[in-house]
Amino acid sequence: MFNSSKKIAVYPGSFDPLTNGHLDIIHRASKLFDHLIVGVLTNSAKSPIFTKEERVELIRKCTSEYENVEVKMFDGLLVDFVRENKAVAIIKGLRAVSDYEYELQMAALNKHIDHEIETVFLMADIQNSFLSSSIVKELAKNGGNIKGLVPDKIIDDIMKKMY
Ligand code: PNS
After folding, report:
1. What is the pLDDT of residue 43?
2. Which of 38, 74, 107, 162 has its CB 3.0 to 4.6 Å from that of 81, i.e. a possible disulfide?
């Protein structure tokens, strides 16, 4: 039977900080789903330079024009966050074959935990294929120019954090 309920997706990540690659995925996913929740967490394998609250603020600053995009923070299992928000899909961006192995494992694990939740992979735009939050931090820390790699609105926030 036709189900007219709104389709919600979650785009999870550390976003330390948001890059133009992330923003491109947000833009494209916001067109595919009725509602997109950007889920910000602290990955236990990483030591972020921005607090979770700061990362949420930076993303909100750059996504305010998207009426169907919401930014939230979460802890714990991604699948639990997806369920709590009644989402049907997890969005992941893939930049290169090297991303694929880890993401395939994560998608399979999340599917094992909850069979109803789909992982939807969006291929990164070719011009963002080298881009990551780590690259941005490395460049900024060493006096490189991060213009074009992150939204202009947050360049000052990033540079202030570095010095
Ligand atoms: O931007 P990141 O740090 O690469 O994002 C990784 C993220 C947040 C997608 C991943 O760490 C995650 O899903 N964390 C939540 C905890 C979880 O559900 N882990 C999988 C089962 S152990």
Report:
1. 87
2. 74
Task: Judge if the beta carbon of residue 14 lies within 6 A of ligand 1.
Answer: yes
**Is 22 among the catalytic positions?**
yes
Q: At what angle do helices 133-141 and 155-162 cross, to 10 degrees?
A: 60
Give yes or no for residue 40 CB within 6 A of ligand 1. Answer: no
Alpha-carbon gap, residue 21 to 150, rounded angstroms: 8
Phi then psi for 25, rounded to 5 degrees? -65, -40
- Helix, strand, coil abundance in the chain, percent, nearest 5: 45, 20, 35
Tokens of 156: 């000052």
Give the pLDDT band (50/70/90) at residue 1.
Answer: low
Find the length of the chain. Answer: 163
CB of 128 sitting under 6 A from ligand 1 = no
pLDDT score for 93: 97
Q: What is the pLDDT of residue 2?
A: 65
pLDDT at 109 over 60: yes
